[in-house]
Amino acid sequence: MPSDAIRAALIERLRVSSAIAEEDIREVEALPISVRQFPAETAVVRDGERATDCCLIVDGFCARSKTLANGKRQILSLHIPGEIPDLMSLFLHVMDHDLSTLTPATLGFISHEALQKLHRRSPRVAEMFWRDTLIDSAMFREWIVNVGQRPAPARLAHVMIELRERLRMIGRLDSDSFEMPLTQEQIGEALGITAVHANRVIRQLRQEGIVELNRGRVTVLDERKFQELADFEPRYLHQSPTL
Amino acid sequence: MPSDAIRAALIERLRVSSAIAEEDIREVEALPISVRQFPAETAVVRDGERATDCCLIVDGFCARSKTLANGKRQILSLHIPGEIPDLMSLFLHVMDHDLSTLTPATLGFISHEALQKLHRRSPRVAEMFWRDTLIDSAMFREWIVNVGQRPAPARLAHVMIELRERLRMIGRLDSDSFEMPLTQEQIGEALGITAVHANRVIRQLRQEGIVELNRGRVTVLDERKFQELADFEPRYLHQSPTL
DNA sequence: GCACGGTTCCAACAAAAGTTAAGGACGCGG
DNA sequence: CCGCGTCCTTAACTTTTGTTGGAACCGTGC
After folding, report:
1. What is the rounded CA–CA span in Å between residue A210 and residue A224?
2. Nearest CB to A68: which of B126, B147, B231?
3. What angle do CA A176, A180, A186 make, to 5 degrees?
4. Domains in chain B, ordered, with CATH?
5. Is residue A6 very low, low, confident or very high in pLDDT (cuts 50, 70, 90)?
6. Is the separation of the CB atoms in B235 and A96 below 8 Å?
7. A224 beta carbon < 7 A from strand C?
8. Which positions on chain C have an atom < 7 Å from some protein CB?
9. Strand D closer than 7 Å to the CB of A181?
10. CA of B170: how far to CAs of B40, B157, B164, in Å?
11. Angle between helices B223-230 and B152-169 (to 10 degrees)
């Protein structure tokens, strides 16, 4: 993948979430990025580690998670190309959770040093990245609501719609279906339910003709019912830079 | 309350979470703050509103929450003096959740304008506030884990210990008991359970001789059992500035 | 082609949590 | 001091979710 294309994903994302000036784009494009390939289901940074780089997803899906002493795992967020899931490590030096790949992924690493230098030089770029971490935070808030207050079928629908809207933002929503490359085990970990119950919920949504989930691909059968179930309010994604 | 004392709470907090230089302290102390009193159970900023100020808690307890279309409410975080719960509104201009008081509270408002000016001038101060929002984010992650993976009694214990440790940080842990001024209804909203079930859980912990909860005050009966139940790992609070 | 591991799927039973309803404690204002 | 409202408390019953265990499916490597 050419170097330009790698940066394009990042720029595209920042353009969506912030009002970015042309000269700032040039600054961001000048950031040195070292690219590496990761297989599926692989840790990128682990809980307790001290990070020295931030990780830009060039291609593939990632997830952040925490594992308890008793082995139970909670998925905190899903991540798609153009995002920097561990931007927070810039100032929270030791990781408090894991970042790992869901699918085979192409990741670009940007050193903390380079990032710190850049935004000491350019407060506008700093604010842009700051805003990015704040949107991340807003998504966690919604995730709390999802896990805490919605019944399991609604939780699943909500996570699906959030993912779909984010894929749409980066122009990766080709057809009426979209990718959600999680096993049922992982879906359970995301929703705070067991894999068995995740299976039940998926079956139920299929039987009710709302949505079909097959080998990591979501096909919506009844858009109206789907939205009604998910109770999705996109404001928390803070898509409009001016708002 | 004298103006100095108001700022002291904030400085104290920033000192704990970041390595702050003396000249930066002076900058922060120079911030204009307008103080107002709020009764208990009152909205400070509401979901959907556009904020123009950030709110420093001088005295009292606050909580952030989101309310769903069906009326269900999820509490996202609890806040104590010295914190700025809506710092995020600086760059996420329209609120995606509510901020309200739990007890009567003294709040200091700092205009976005003043804050923006300050950290354009001083990147170090900006980084300090940025870090503050990142810790906020880390606490949301742990809250997700709590609601998603722990059984209800452990959830309650975890929230209690988190609160206790934070009160300790700001030097407000007088004795063996501490304040947690939530009704059982609100405890339910924080843990993602109903008020009835919250009551059951509280009773259970009392009967097992682990912890007592009485009119907003927590008394630990068996510290060992309490900690074991809560499964509390303080790393996510990122207390040490150097880490 | 076949064995293998990881998923998916499912059913029966157990446990946790939600719902409804109602009585009691407590503080506040008249 | 009484009445009222809020919170706390509890019980009985229902629903959701977890647990256990097992069968079917599917792609991969041999």
Report:
1. 9
2. B231
3. 150
4. 3-143 (2.60.120.10), 150-237 (2.60.120.10)
5. confident
6. yes
7. no
8. 6-12, 16-21
9. no
10. 22, 20, 10
11. 110
Please state, in angstroms and rounded to a whole number, the distance separating the CA atoms of residues B149 and B179: 26
pTM exceeds 0.85, yes or no: yes
Q: Which nucleotide is nearest to A191 (CA to C1')?
A: D17
Only one residue has tokens 């009193």, namely B37
A150 CA from D17 C1′ (Å): 13
Tell me if A76 sits within 8 A of A97, measured CB to CB. Answer: yes
Residue A177: what are its φ and ψ, rounded to 5°? Answer: -120, 165
What are the phi and psi torsion angles at A91 (to 5°)? Answer: -120, -15
Give the gap in angstroms from C-alpha A55 to the nearest C-alpha of chain B: 17
Closest by Cβ to A140, choosing from B48, B140, B191: B140
Chunked into runs of 10 residues, chain B (243 residues) has average pLDDT values of 74 81 87 94 96 95 96 97 96 96 96 93 91 97 98 98 95 88 98 97 96 94 96 94 70
C1' of C27 to CA of B216 (Å): 15
Report d(CA A196, CA A192) in Å as an integer: 12
Provide the pLDDT for residue A2: 61
Beta carbons of B92 and A136 less than 8 Å apart: no
Q: Do B93 and A120 touch (CB under 8 A)?
A: no
- What separation in angstroms does the CA of B128 have from each of A4, B87, B132, B241? 33, 12, 6, 10
Positions in chain D where some atom is under 7 Å from a protein CB: 6-12, 16-21
Which tens digits make up the pLDDT trace of B11-64? 888 887 787 888 888 889 889 999 999 999 999 999 999 999 999 999 999 999
The pLDDT value given to residue A159: 98
Distance from CA of B1 to the nearest CA of A (A): 32
